[in-house]
Design goal:
The chain has 300 residues and is mostly helical. The protein has 16 helices and two strands. The protein starts with a helix and ends in a 20-residue tail after the last helix.
């Protein structure tokens, strides 16, 4: 109390900054960059992912409900998403280990979902696509992982473009209606040989992509509140990738009103230029026919 009474303040003084907590101080860009530079290659999120992978591997499923495994998987994936880009290489073997551990645990309890799944398909494949962990998806595809689950499973391409698609998985799929498509995963799947004409429940996935572009263009044309070019840019990335691998870009042109183009062009010229260039591309049927059957390559 005596100390407080002894304090005196100059009324002309100003407080230029105030650190409320240590967390506020550490999260300042200058301080955080300094700490990151001093820590070298250490990434705490890689360590946390490894910890959760080991926990999943060592869990006693006879004493733990499957919901406990679900929580571990979600925490591991969330930490992978927060890791630095330079940590991708270190995360690949950890995701491999997590995938192996989950598969073994689900088999141990005779889970019906894992029993129906082919051993060629990674349990984590749909979930990592949903969370845009393209580096691991690419690594699997390079090892020969199938580009589609086949049968009644949700196509991987649909998971990459539709953030609200229900996944055939025993845990929370992380649905997010505000999340856009994973353009990197779309590219990886199509480059690895996925069918751009693939269908789910009789509807082509390319139709869903067209619908999202039309929806965003309509919003931009009508000047809806908070409209920006960011969503349409991402969807144009996806559409261009589909078109390069055999989808019909002209089928998109037929759905768009010329009036929308007129209304949008002055505000978003770059996006309209991309759209026009997309329409001008001829349809390419590289490996797939419209029926979804793989074409045989001609011998040279």
């Amino acid at each position: 109390m005596q100390y407080r009474q002894s304090l005196s303040f100059d009324k002309t003084s100003t407080v230029q900054y105030l650190h409320r907590t240590l967390k506020d101080f550490i999260e300042m860009p200058k301080i955080w960059n300094y700490l990151c530079a001093a820590s070298g290659s250490f990434d705490p999120y890689v360590s946390l992912c490894k910890a959760y992978a080991l926990e999943a591997k060592l869990m006693d499923m006879s004493k733990s409900p499957i919901t406990d495994l679900v929580v571990i998987v979600e925490r591991a994936i969330n930490n992978c998403c927060r890791a630095q880009k330079k940590s991708d290489t270190a995360l690949i073997p950890l995701l491999d280990m997590l995938n192996t551990a989950i598969t073994a645990q689900l088999k141990r309890i005779n889970n019906r979902w894992i029993a129906k799944r082919s051993k060629d398909h990674a349990v984590l494949m749909p979930l990592t696509i949903r969370h845009d962990l393209a580096f691991w998806v690419e690594a699997l595809l390079k090892r020969g992982h199938p580009t589609s689950p086949g049968g009644p499973g949700i196509p991987y391409l649909l998971v990459a473009v539709d953030a609200e698609a229900e996944l055939d998985m025993p845990w929370n799929a992380g649905k997010d209606s505000n999340k856009g498509p994973s353009s990197k995963c779309v590219l990886a799947l199509l480059e690895a040989g996925a069918n751009p004409h693939e269908r789910y429940r009789e509807e082509p996935i390319w139709k869903f992509v067209r619908h999202k572009i039309v929806q965003d263009l309509r919003s931009l044309a009508h000047g809806h509140h908070n409209c920006s070019a960011a969503p349409i840019d991402t969807w144009l990335d996806v559409a261009e990738t589909f078109a390069r691998h055999g989808a019909d870009p002209d089928s998109l042109r037929r759905l768009i009103s010329p009036e929308w183009i007129t209304n949008i062009k002055s505000r978003f010229p770059a996006q309209i230029d991309r759209l026009m260039e997309l329409w001008s591309q001829p349809e390419r049927q590289l490996r797939w026919s419209h029926s979804g059957r793989q074409r045989k390559r001609k011998r040279v």
